[in-house]
Amino acid sequence: MNSPEESSGGQPSKYCGLVEFENQFKDVEEKTPVSTVLCKQWKKKTSGCSIKDSLLDTFPIVRTIRKYEVREDLPNDLIAGMTSGVMMIPQGMAFAALSTLPPIVGLYISFFASATYALLGTGRQVSWGCIAVLSIMMGQILDKYDASVKGGNSFDCFNDTLIEREDAKNNRTAGEFSSDPSDPVTSRRMEVASGVTLVAALVVIVASRVGLSRVSSLLSNSLITGFTVGIAFHVGTSQLKEILGVRVARQSGIGSIVKTWIELLKKIPDTNVATLITSAICILAIYLVKRFVNEKYKKKLRVPIPIDLIVAIIATLVTEFGRIHKDHGVRVVGDVPTGLPAPKFPDLSLSSSYIGDGLVIAVVAYTQTLALTKTFGLEHNYPVDPAQEMLASGMVNLVCAVFSGYIAAGSVSRSMVQNGAGGRTQLASLVAAIMVLLVILFAGPYFYYLPKCVLSAIIVVSLRSMMLKLLTIPEMWRRSPLDCSVWVFTCAAVVVLNPDLGLLVSVVLSLLIVVLRTMVNPVSEAGQIDLGDSLSVELRSLRGYSAAKPPRQARIVKIRTPLFYVNSEAFVTGIYEKTGVNPVEIRKANKKREENTAKDPSVTESYKETKEELGEEVQNFDEGKSTQANNGNTNEYHREVAGLSCPVIILDAAHMAFVDLMGVQALQMVIKEMKTVEVEVFISSLPENVIPLLKSTGFWEKHGDRLFLSVDAALASLVSQQKK
User: Fold this and answer.
1) Are residues 17 and 79 in the same domain?
2) Which residue numbers delimit the STAS domain (predicted)?
3) What letters, b where the CB count within 10 A reaches 16 and e where it falls short, cover 521-553?
């Protein structure tokens, strides 16, 4: 940006005025009815779009298969798929238990989610299935359902009687449920979860088709990470009763973690020693292999050791042949049915009260999966379509809902393993789904003797990566205190409150922070930094850049944020503060002076002398030689002299991303108020998207002579006027 004298030879360029520029170059826009616009958009989308192209867009795997290199890709996909599938089996069963549903549900979700996403998803390394975060959130919904059953209508009372009978028959504590899907109580609870999932899936599918895939932007990475770490505390706490082998009633609501810990401390004397020893051995074995073998020798190991499955198999064999479940009271999974469930649309009347909670889970699932997909897309250089990912997410959950499952998502840990094992395409997910299908069809009964504490051990070790994120807080604080604050607040809110309420409060806080950032310092006074030679003159804030000097002809104020109803008042007061020109105060001072003059005519002569003295100081101030300005009292001094000089204020609107009606009114107020004290206001560098509103409100027509293409153009025009 050259100085005005250099850029225009002392004369303003032909199109330095924004109005003249727009009149010369802006295409004439014809007003068309909304229906016509919609028709044009529809034709644009459908023209040249064949059924074949639509199918290819909807099923990305077709494009993948057409370009598939069998010799290079197939071996990698087979190994990665089998590795991921082996992990899915114990993790799916363990994570399903977090939702208080039968472990077999986790296998249903793992199979149908992986198979469906492989057909519809764009992420080639993403492993879908049952994950801890969503399971614990679904468990919260089922807790609400259980609470409503215990104090509900006649049907609910009947259901409540069933719960009490089943608890008495199976020696269960309140809050524990059968692992048999055919159990009446368990069946209805599965239907509640499926109903919530079905409605959420349909909403997500519709949202993907109407362009709402950007809803995930409401959840920042800091918020999502803090949320998952907070959930990890809930997950870990929920597994302690199985690790200790004690019976503790499931707690829900605000402060559920604290309530659970209190109950656990009371039950410590009742700890089952055999269960505790089994848990400790399993946790130690899984941790040592994952930490010191799989992680340490990641580059050398073609496939990581499936220690989760190995431990589960060994523990099952030891329990069955050692009879520790009968001799020492170690609780086992029990009956695991074989075969796929029949498709069934759930009774939505059972879940109608929890649809909002389900939508929250669906948004969390989509957001986490999209972030994971984008990560692998960047790593392997393939495109990721957020809208298609949202459609895939909705379809996956729709299928899961019809086949007795609940909301699924991409698993971070399994996806990392699938990627590390060399997975090239979505076929790896199909291989993993086939592995799980074999277990569902044939291996279910063999997991009868699997100890529940082993599933808890698998879950607890899987939380390690989440808990390690707590160690990143100091580094995060050094990088961005604001993001760190959101992270910590979200984590604390989820722990202290409950997952859904904690997430809601955190989202509100994040949006509030965005709003507050536009309200704090929406403007700053700027100056020019001369880079010398033929380089441009840069505009920078006076604060922080001592080399920045305000031009002699005017004050430059940068608008740093969008101008809308939230910060319109702060914008006006900010202009007054940064320029040191407050028309209201100046008018008050002038009125007081006039009153004093009317009372005592001798004041007039004194005022003229003062004006002459101040006028000299004003000149020195404009030339950067004022002693008071050098002492850091520029604003205070300028307030005193502003009413006696005739400065010009140039508003640099280059960063004003958008403006609303109140923003336009704020601009008009500044112009009007400044004019009352003989201060002119110019506006430069207006973004194109704000011009239509300025025209429709009459601002363009009324104040068009104050609008310029750039700060240089405004200064050039000012120099030209002064020469005249």
Assistant:
1) no
2) 556-718
3) bbbbbbbbbeeeeeeebebebbeeeeebebbeb
With CA atoms as reference, report the closest residue to 263 among 275, 255, 151, 282.
255
Q: Looking at the predicted structure, is the pLDDT value of residue 34 above 70?
A: no
Distance from C-alpha of 258 to C-alpha of 256, rounded to nearest angstrom: 5
State which residues form the domain around 453. 68-462+473-513
Query: Phi and psi dihedrals of 223, rounded to 5?
Result: -65, -45
Query: In this predicted structure, what is the pLDDT of residue 397?
Result: 95
Q: What is the pLDDT of residue 43?
A: 65
Which has more confidence, 45 or 101? 101
Residue 530 forms beta bridges with which residues? 537
So what's the pLDDT on residue 24?
79
* Tally of domains within the chain: 2
Distance CA 190, CA 177 (A): 11
Helix, coil or strand: residue 128: strand
Which pLDDT tens digit goes with each residue over 396-415? 999 999 999 999 999 888 88
Q: Give me the torsion for CA of 100, 101, 102, 107, rounded to 10°.
A: -120
Are 21 and 101 in a shared domain?
no
Which one, of 278, 252, 264, 94, lies nearest residue 179 by Cα? 94
* DSSP notation for 568-622: HHHHHHHHHHHHT--HHHHHHHHHHHHHHHHH-THHHHHHHHHHHHHHHHHHHHH
156 and 282 belong to one structural domain: yes
d(CA 229, CA 463): 9
How far is the first Cα of the chain from the last one, in angstroms, to the nearest whole number?
Answer: 25
For residues 645 and 712, membership in a common domain is answered with: yes
510-560 pLDDT, tens digit per residue, is 888 888 888 888 888 888 777 765 456 677 777 777 777 777 778 889 998
Q: Which has the closest alpha carbon to 231: 297, 150, 132?
A: 132
Q: Which residues contact 620 (CB under 8 A, 6 or more apart)?
A: 626
User: Looking at residue 655, what DSSP letter applies?
Assistant: T
Q: DSSP letter at 332?
A: B
468 falls within a domain? no
